[in-house]
Amino acid sequence: MPVQGIRAVTAARNGVGAFILQCKRLDLHYCDWAGSSRGMVAFLKHQLPAFAKENPQIEIRVSPRPHKHPVLRGHYINGREKAICVRNLEPEQILQKANLLKEASGEKLKKQKKPVTSLNESVRGIWSPYHGDLKSV
Amino acid sequence: MRPSVRLLTPEASSRQVSRLLYLCSTCRQQVSRPARSVVTLAQPFGRRHASSDSSSSSSATTPLTEKVRRKIWGTDNPPGLKDPYGGDGAISRALGGSTNENNLAESTGQQELETVTGEDPLAAAASSSGYVPAMTWEGLPTIGHLGRWSDLPPSQADAYSPFVAKKRLVKEGLVALAAHQAAVELALLRSLGKPLTAVCDVLEHDESIFKLIWECKIQPGAEGAWEGALVFPNEETEKALSFVFEQIGGVAEEDIPEATAAEAAEVDEAEMEFDDVEEESASATSSKPIPFFGYDNVQDEGFLALSLDDLATKFAFLKRFAQLSGHFFPDPTIHSITTVQQALEYVHSVNNPKPKKLAHQLAASAELQDLSNVKVFLTRRRAAHRDEELGRKKIIDAELRARGLME
């Protein structure tokens, strides 16, 4: 019986078959007194219900943070957090920041050096000294 | 002395004269003359004017400054020092103080004499009458209170009775009762042709009259018109209320028809006690524990549709409503109110204000309550909350207690 290689199975990739949103929780902090929270207060009053309805997989927590600037804080399934200060921003701008946190992976931002990146091995295969013809020098 | 000659004459050195005193060249030359005595030295130091010391007559010995002084004062004995412009100089006083002491003693004695003879006549009179002038404000009669006005008992002018009720109505039923009563009273006064604001003359009616008012219904006409809106339960009520409200607004009793008066007298004798309105209202406010005699709500809500577009009617209604309910209406609100319903809504908004904290608003929002993924916290989230959420708070507390760091 000839030796058979191990069959390659499709590796699990997020988005292949199912997509799990990396952002699991979004904390929204505001201040009742400070003027920098004016846009945040308006966002919470008018735009938060629609945003929460569109993203039922994200837990949204709203809590006051007195005498501090308003903050959006995203919690990701890799254990990391990302926080964005939204002081003096308009409700529309805060919505953009919330979408940014929602779509983020939670990883640190990296500089992309090459235009194309892939997790696949090289199509040429890995070089082995035991394979291939002998080369005459 | 000529300048050329002065250069030849020796001057006194600084060792011979005090360093503190400035001496001119002439004085230094005078000091350096060895032949003269101290007494003779003093004379030219003090007087360098053109006085001659050789003549023997008094007019000749009198210096020029003294002559001018006497001419100014117009007398041979001018006031002041004996020789204010002359006298001994600084050097002569330093060298021979004995001669100056005599002059000083003389001048001091002269001043004392003037002080005694020129005493204040008022002070002399006061001392004779036993008057002692005050040196401080202690014990002096004061004008005003000087911060102690609060210790005085209240006077008649301090008493104050507010126009509106002292206690605001909070229950919606009681507020509706006040609005209904104001609407019925205004409708009655309009039908009787009385001034509308006269309704505020009576703060509170008798219980029997209030019951008659409570039984009345209001069915406003088209667009909330007041004309013919008042519906009486029966004819007796109409007559009784008409009789009662005929007396409001300054109408004499002679004008009241006898038949009407007789029928109204049967209603209740207490109705006739409207002569002393203020006294009755004051006693009622102080002794009445239950507002509107225990009535808790209105019979019908037709009065809500009454229009307040007419400014006189609006003013009279809001004035009476404010008096009964205790709620003040600010000017912008008065301007925006057009129906009785809006006036009631304003009072309702005052009684149930919106929460000032955003967390309370969000927590009360039905839209967010329906969403299962939204959680609103009323207070700030701290590290202890995170520990409790992760289930490690009990472990931390137990460890802290074991180490004696927490009780």
UniProtKB/TrEMBL annotation, chain A:
<dbReference type="GO" id="GO:0003735">
    <property type="term" value="F:structural constituent of ribosome"/>
</dbReference>
<dbReference type="GO" id="GO:0005762">
    <property type="term" value="C:mitochondrial large ribosomal subunit"/>
</dbReference>
<dbReference type="InterPro" id="IPR036249">
    <property type="entry name" value="Thioredoxin-like_sf"/>
</dbReference>
<comment type="similarity">
    <text>Belongs to the mitochondrion-specific ribosomal protein mL43 family.</text>
</comment>
<dbReference type="Pfam" id="PF05047">
    <property type="entry name" value="L51_S25_CI-B8"/>
</dbReference>
<dbReference type="InterPro" id="IPR007741">
    <property type="entry name" value="Ribosomal_mL43/mS25/NADH_DH"/>
</dbReference>
<feature type="domain" description="Ribosomal protein/NADH dehydrogenase">
    <location>
        <begin position="32"/>
        <end position="105"/>
    </location>
</feature>
<dbReference type="GO" id="GO:0032543">
    <property type="term" value="P:mitochondrial translation"/>
</dbReference>
<keyword id="KW-0689">Ribosomal protein</keyword>
<protein>
    <recommendedName>
        <fullName>Large ribosomal subunit protein mL43</fullName>
    </recommendedName>
</protein>
<dbReference type="InterPro" id="IPR039927">
    <property type="entry name" value="Ribosomal_mL43"/>
</dbReference>
<keyword id="KW-0687">Ribonucleoprotein</keyword>
<keyword id="KW-0496">Mitochondrion</keyword>
Automatic annotation (TrEMBL), chain B:
<comment type="similarity">
    <text>Belongs to the mitochondrion-specific ribosomal protein mL50 family.</text>
</comment>
<feature type="compositionally biased region" description="Polar residues">
    <location>
        <begin position="97"/>
        <end position="110"/>
    </location>
</feature>
<keyword id="KW-0689">Ribosomal protein</keyword>
<keyword id="KW-0175">Coiled coil</keyword>
<dbReference type="GO" id="GO:1990904">
    <property type="term" value="C:ribonucleoprotein complex"/>
</dbReference>
<dbReference type="Pfam" id="PF10501">
    <property type="entry name" value="Ribosomal_L50"/>
</dbReference>
<dbReference type="InterPro" id="IPR018305">
    <property type="entry name" value="Ribosomal_m50"/>
</dbReference>
<feature type="region of interest" description="Disordered">
    <location>
        <begin position="45"/>
        <end position="110"/>
    </location>
</feature>
<dbReference type="GO" id="GO:0005739">
    <property type="term" value="C:mitochondrion"/>
</dbReference>
<feature type="coiled-coil region">
    <location>
        <begin position="260"/>
        <end position="287"/>
    </location>
</feature>
<dbReference type="GO" id="GO:0005840">
    <property type="term" value="C:ribosome"/>
</dbReference>
<protein>
    <recommendedName>
        <fullName>Large ribosomal subunit protein mL50</fullName>
    </recommendedName>
</protein>
<keyword id="KW-0687">Ribonucleoprotein</keyword>
<keyword id="KW-0496">Mitochondrion</keyword>
